[in-house]
Design goal:
- The structure holds 2 protein chains of 2 kinds.
- Chain A has 9 helices and 12 strands.
- Chain A is α/β, with parallel strands linked by helices.
- In chain A, the strands form 3 sheets. Chain A has a 6-stranded mixed sheet, sandwiched between helices. A 4-stranded antiparallel sheet of chain A has the order 2-1-4-5, covered by helices on one side.
- In chain A, helix 4 packs antiparallel against helix 5.
- Chain A starts with 6 loop residues before the first strand and ends in a 23-residue tail after the last strand.
- In chain A, 44% of the residues are buried.
- Helices cover 77% and strands 0% of the residues of chain B.
- The chains are: A alpha/beta, B mainly alpha.
- Chains A and B meet through helix 2, strand 6, helix 3 and helix 4 of A and helix 2 and helix 11 of B.
Chain lengths: 282, 349
């Protein structure tokens, strides 16, 4: 996986029926980097991700992979370069973890062909790198939420694509598992140069883990760039209509968003005191 | 398989696990096929007169055996072949729908497709007084048109499996009402023929009934089996399957057309044998184990169900019952069981 692939949207318009979600949007996914798409509910970020993965045909414009428009190309061929982990995939009842992960080999297999040695090796590696080898023969139904998400990511890894899109890979996970999944994706990016594009709800995790942010508002990119450069209180106001303080995260140095709601806000906005909780006494 | 010498040690566990599950599938599938063959042989031997296996084999090989040539060759053989073909068709068509729509209730006998074929047939017999062949053609057309109507009605604003099932159940109820109405107006000499379209029966089995279904199976069964792997991936959900390179829309249309056509041919031959399409898939899923494609095992379970139910209906009671009555009695409690279970676990198959 050394060659890097390019993925971009050109004047992309997406619509469900006569409801336009995204209008004439242009973006270029930075190859070999981790990109997060952020924005408020309903801003079109999941729709955009699904269109980048050819699951929605463009109303106008196009998604371009390696210089060629996605739409109309053989879908199995695309599936060897571009993978998507949907927000809520369905695990068939009783399926073993190894078999679920093995589904990732589908685009590499012919109609009636058996599994090759390479197929087995890739599945074993995907299980190992997500830390679930010992669960291989267990039923997916028995797994915890975090283990299950790792199994799905292992399936996406088994697909061996250079570009991996993920729709909110951390939803339904507790904070420890969220970090675990994002660390795993970072490993994947650093070790194999896999281009990762994910939709994330959590601005702070997006700012910490992504090299590049796209902030969406009403189907338009309102900011694009490194989290340091684009994540400001003005952007938070524009995207989320929320008053917030943006300060450097003491752990990672990336920007962190501290929302100011109507309650529990001290008079002085700055500086941040760790451990203090003045607000609670009011 | 040559794979185990080439794969690294870490992958050996994956190989072993997959092989274990595959072995169970193979053993169960072979056992089911053997069961079909055994019951087939038994149903040729058993009857008013019991013939030995040697006599049956000689009849099949084309020798003339006094008595047996007619009873076995002309009466029992077409019936036994029809039982297998119809059961196979109902089983594979049923599990295709259940897999594709990820719901055991989505079987074609529940969502009105079989009822469409039956309604067309009853209309053809009672109102149009058509010949047997013309009735079969009409039944196949009726099944396909019903499926098309249900698909179009449920496809408004994006395909949704649950909507299709609910619309199908409504359509089935309407068609059943139509069948009952036509039958209530029917002259008594038509009732005998028309009743077959209500319960499903192998009594009409002759070679002229068997052949169209056999020919259709020869084309449609391989077509369905070739999509087994894609269907299996589609169980992960449309988005996941599409990003794994499955052509969702094309596969769905192709599979629906093949399954409905097969089902309509089977219904034209035997009438709607109740609940076979519905029961075969879930039974197969339980004995085969999760993971693999259910198409072939379900088809074999369907064949076995029809064979056994027909033997029961013919010989287990004082009077003879059509096969559909027996499967109906078995199927109704099974439907209730699945409904309770699906509600509790939200399970798919």
């Amino acid at each position: 996986m050394t060659e890097s692939h390019s993925l971009s949207a050109q004047a992309l318009t997406l619509a469900y029926g006569d409801r336009t979600i995204v209008e004439r949007l242009d973006l270029v996914i930075p190859p070999g980097r981790i990109t997060a798409i952020v924005g408020a509910n309903g801003c079109g970020k999941s729709t955009l991700l699904r269109a980048l993965a050819r699951l929605i045909p463009p109303r106008e414009g196009q998604v371009v992979l390696d210089g060629k428009a996605l739409h109309g190309r053989p879908t199995k061929e695309i599936a060897r370069t571009l993978g998507l982990l949907p927000q809520s995939p369905i695990a068939p009842e009783g399926i073993a973890v190894a078999d679920l992960v093995g589904r990732g080999r589908h685009p590499h297999q012919k109609l009636m062909s058996r599994w090759s040695a390479h197929d087995y090796e890739v599945v074993a590696r995907a299980l190992a790198s997500t830390g679930i080898e010992e669960l291989a023969d267990r039923s997916v139904d028995e797994l915890s939420g975090g283990q299950r998400q790792r199994a799905w990511i292992a399936m996406a890894l088994a697909q061996e694509t250079d570009i991996l899109l993920l729709d909110e890979p951390t939803t339904f996970l507790d904070v420890a598992h969220q970090i675990e999944v994002l660390d795993l994706l970072t490993d994947l990016n650093r070790e194999h140069g896999t281009t990762i594009v994910m939709v994330l709800h959590d601005m702070n995790l997006a700012a910490r883990y992504a090299d590049h942010l796209f902030a969406l508002r009403a189907g338009q990119v309102v900011a694009s760039g490194a989290p340091h450069d684009v994540l400001t209180s003005e952007l938070i106001r524009e995207v989320f209509d929320l008053d917030a303080l943006v300060v450097p995260d003491p752990v990672s140095g990336s920007p962190i968003v501290l929302p100011r709601g109507r309650h529990h806000v001290t008079a002085q906005p700055e500086p941040v005191q760790t451990g203090a909780s003045d607000g609670h006494d009011r | 398989m040559s794979a185990d010498t080439l794969v690294p040690i870490a992958a050996q566990a994956v190989v072993a696990g997959r092989r274990r599950r595959a072995r169970r599938r193979t053993v169960v599938t072979v056992a089911l096929a053997l069961g079909v063959v055994l019951v087939f042989a038994a149903s040729l031997m058993i009857g008013q007169t019991i013939y030995g296996l040697d006599e049956v084999v000689r009849v099949i090989l084309g020798e003339t055996v006094p008595g047996a040539s007619f009873t076995v060759g002309e009466l029992r053989l077409p019936r036994a072949v029809l039982a297998i073909l119809a059961g196979f068709a109902f089983g594979i068509a049923g599990v295709t729908f259940q897999t594709m729509l990820r719901n055991p209730l989505a079987s074609p006998d529940i969502i009105g497709i079989t009822a469409g074929a039956s309604a067309a047939a009853v209309f053809g017999i009672v109102v149009l007084s058509l010949s047997e062949t013309a009735v079969s053609v009409l039944a196949v057309t009726g099944g396909l048109l019903t499926a098309l109507a249900i698909y179009l009605l449920s496809n408004k604003g994006g395909f949704a499996g649950t909507r299709l099932i609910l619309i199908g159940i409504g359509v089935a109820a309407m068609l059943d009402a139509a069948i009952t109405y036509v039958l209530s107006k029917a002259p008594s000499y038509d009732l005998q023929a028309a009743m077959r379209w209500l319960t499903g029966s192998l009594n009409g089995a002759t070679w002229s009934v068997v052949l169209p279904l056999a020919a259709a199976s020869l084309v449609l069964v391989p077509a369905l089996l070739s999509r087994g792997r894609d269907l299996n991936v589609m169980r992960l959900g449309d988005d996941a399957a599409a990003s794994l390179g499955v052509r969702i829309h094309g596969t769905r249309v192709m599979v629906i057309v093949a399954a409905v056509a097969l089902l309509a041919f089977a219904t034209a031959a035997t009438g709607p044998i109740a609940f076979v399409a519905f029961m075969a898939g879930p039974i197969a899923a339980r004995i085969v184990g999760p993971g693999g494609s259910l198409l072939l095992p379900s088809a074999l379970v369907g064949a076995l169900l029809v064979q056994l139910a027909d033997l029961l209906g013919q010989f287990a009671f004082d009077s003879r019952y059509p096969v559909g009555v027996v499967t109906g009695v078995l199927g109704a409690p099974f439907l209730i069981y699945l409904l309770i279970r699906t509600n509790r676990a939200g399970g798919s198959l």
